[in-house]
Amino acid sequence: MRTKIGNRSDPPWTVLYGAKHRWERLDDFPAGIAQPKKVRIYRRGGHYIISWWDPGAGKSLSERVDGDLLAALVKAREIDTRIVNRKTAGIGKHRHIGHHELADRFLEDLRRRASAGEVAPQTAERYRTALDHYLAFTAAPEIAKTFPMAASADREFRLAFTAFLQERAIRGNGRPGAPCKRMRGQGIVVDTVRALYAWASDGDRGGLLPEGFKNPFLHSGSNRPLLRGDPLAEPDITMAMAADFLRACDEFEFGIFVPIVCFGLRAAEPRFLFREHLLDDWLLVPNVPELDYTTKGRRDKRFPLPAGVAA
Fold first, then answer.
1. CB-side neighbour CA atoms (13 Å) of 160
2. Which residues of the chain register pLDDT less than 70?
3. Which among 13, 80, 143, 243 is least surrounded, fewest beta carbons within 10 Å?
């Protein structure tokens, strides 16, 4: 028996019979709880299904909610608010996109940006080479079964990928007869995949992943070097060694290396020091907006000027 949906004389649960499952739609809500305007809630077996028409996607979408009725109501209210305010639930037009298609769309966007002059043409080729390792990983049967879609990538996916790179062997010079060697530069590949997922989850760029997707490669800490040795031991370069180095400098070198050694300036900063930056006994190290230059820390600095540096 099929009961008509939307009839207020029906019981709170309107019963529908599909081809394989019994569906029950919640039509009435307790006093004080407003019914979602755009979202329908169904009970199916031991879980809930919320369904809605998404104007942004141009089709009806649905999502499973595991939990009790309260969890389904909270999720329905969240999606309902997004549709009313943004005209889309933000689930993503291509939430079932695969890894290979995701990489192709990312590289195509890079090519368009290179044509527009936003990135160097070599960047797209460099990213394509790095993503070849990512696609080789996702093509493995066990990975394709566990993480079939890009949206399913999580912490376990990242750990498995980094372990794959550690053991990956490639030919040294790319020739068929060359011996295989363990891959080097895994950090570049991980950074490329991090950029791939950041692009795909950004609604203003890729917009291919559901809203709220957490990039498992973002700030993973995997590239953070481990502390080695005694942090309280003597430094590799001592004060006596630095003093001997400065004594060996001629007049020109002395004016360059003293700010680096004494003030901790990076190598590029002394190149942007001009005569107007010398004020009596002070050395100014400012940002230079007209040259599109910013200092380390992006702030103006001032140091006491040692004798002989002004020369």
1. 15
2. 1-23, 57, 90-95, 171-180, 211, 219-229, 231, 306-311
3. 243
